[in-house]
């Protein structure tokens, strides 16, 4: 006696002899499970004559369906909520059924505007009037997708001038991870997904890594800004030396170290005026106690470099 099981219950049903008679009932149960966010595990049985493993055996008989619940991570909803708050549009791309995807999307708070993958390539419109590229922008996710669908979604979003990040862990995610502006391989990802990604997470979940990535992207610092800062710094140094005949500190290590110490200490202390205000720091007048504390702290800071220069 042999047992056959699989999470794709439709394929298990195709092996069975009575599929024509029970297909409608099986599909109805699968849809009912899917509406509750449950996978369907199909089970079939085949009788094989004793001591004859090479025998083709009798026909497969469909035994039934077992519901399986594969819940999202405990921190998924909070991570998605933070991402949406930061202005990141989160989309679900899954091979699950439409009903399962909608139920999962509702639980995670990311919407239920899901479409089948067939609507991407225009093979089956299902009453959808939007063009595929417009559909991809507006949809909360797509179901029943294959690797080429994931790649196409990333490509179209990039053509619409969006910065696209993609997360994945399997071989089938590798093309889309490579195509995305930011490919993120989650923990326990395959070697193919890791090699195709820009970032590889070493811990389960996206919470810390995703939030850090979103903040880095929000405060983008182009490389040419470093060059501009260096040029302005050099020009400012030479300007005061040439026009006001200020003596250069070059060649005197004691004076240079004292000047750097004062610069760092003053800047770090002055940050209090930025952090205390909700808007621009110069728009709100600091209190008297704060100003006194700042001046006193600076006087204490000055004592050390002055003593160093005098000795």
Query: What does the overall shape look like?
Result: elongated
Question: Helix count?
Answer: 13
Taken as a percent bin, the fraction of beta residues is: 5-15%
What is the residue-averaged pLDDT?
78
User: What's the Cα radius of gyration?
Assistant: 31 Å
Spatial strand arrangement across the major sheet? 1-2-3
Helix content: 40-55%
The N- and C-terminal alpha carbons lie at a distance of 95 Å
Number of domains: 3
Please state the second-level CATH architecture of the largest domain: 3-Layer(aba) Sandwich
Please describe the biggest sheet, giving its number of strands, its sense, and whether it closes into a barrel: 3 strands, antiparallel
H/E series = EHHEEHEHEHEHEHEHEHHHHH
| Name of the CATH superfamily of the largest domain | HAD superfamily/HAD-like
Given this structure, which CATH class of the largest domain is correct?
Alpha Beta
Total DSSP E strands: 9
Which structural class should the secondary elements be placed in? alpha/beta
Q: Which residue ranges are poorly predicted, with pLDDT under 50 across at least 5 consecutive positions? A: 123-129
According to CATH, the fold-level topology of the largest domain is: Rossmann fold
Family: Belongs to the cation transport ATPase (P-type) (TC 3.A.3) family. Type IIIA subfamily.
Subcellular location: Membrane
GO molecular function: ATP binding; ATP hydrolysis activity; metal ion binding
Pfam family, one: Hydrolase
